[in-house]
C-alpha cells in the first residue's frame, strides 16, 4: 500500500514535482509589500491545520479546526455596533466557545471544530461573522430609551448625576427660590462649562470607563465553587464582593472625592461657582 505522503521521495523527486507545478504558479503581487497593505486589501485571515503522519488513514480529527481572524476596525463599525458585536460574540453565554477578542490588538478571533471538515467550518465561521456584523448594525427599539441601570456605557447628558445637579442649582439662586423652578438653557451651558463641573464629570467618567466593553473584558470567568462529597447544600460564607470594574481603584476614588469637594466649595483645588 502506498503511503499518502512525501516521505518516500528523495530530494530529486521533490524538485521534479516542484518544477512541474511551477508553471501553474504566479508571482507575488508587487503592491503587497507590507503587512499593513496586505491587511487593507485582505482583512480576513483564515488559519487551517494540516497534519502529516505515517498511517493507513489520511484523516486527522485535529485538521477540522479552523480559525478566522479580523481586526474590528476593518468592519467600519460605530461605537454602538462595536459594543453590540462584542457583547454578542464574547459576552456571557456559549459565545466564548467560539469567539475571543484581544482589546490590545483589536482582533476578533473565531474558532470552530464542530463540523466534520475544515471547509465546512470555514463556511460556518464566515456565516457567523456575517450575522454578527449585520445584527450589530441594527438598533432595536428597546436599545434607544433604556434605563440608566441598563446602560452599556456612562452618558453624562442622560445621567442621573447631571439631572440632580441641575435640579439642585435650579431651586436656589443665591439663597432665593426661582419662580419657574427651572434653569434656562444658557444657564445650563454655563454651568457645565465651569471647571468644578468639568472636573466632576471627568471623575465620573473615569470611574465608569472600565465598565465599558470597549475598554476591557467585563466577563472574567470566576473560579468554580468547591465540590463537596457528602452534602450538596453547604452554608454560604465569605461571598466575594464584586464591584464595578475600575470603581474601587484608589486613583479614581481620590479623583471623585476631590471633584465632589470642589463642587460644593469644600476643597482648595477649584473655586466654588455661583449660578
TrEMBL record:
GO molecular function: structural constituent of ribosome
One GO term describing the cellular component: mitochondrial small ribosomal subunit
Coiled coil location: none
Domain Small ribosomal subunit protein mS35 mitochondrial conserved, residue spans: 59-140
Keyword set, alphabetical order: Ribonucleoprotein, Ribosomal protein
BP GO annotations: mitochondrial translation
InterPro entries in the record: Ribosomal_mS35_mit (IPR019349), Ribosomal_mS35_mt (IPR039848)
Domain of life: Eukaryota
Pfam families, per the entry: MRP-S28 (PF10213)
PANTHER family in UniProt: MITOCHONDRIAL 28S RIBOSOMAL PROTEIN S28 (PTHR13490), SMALL RIBOSOMAL SUBUNIT PROTEIN MS35 (PTHR13490:SF0)
UniProt name for this protein: 28S ribosomal protein S35 isoform 1
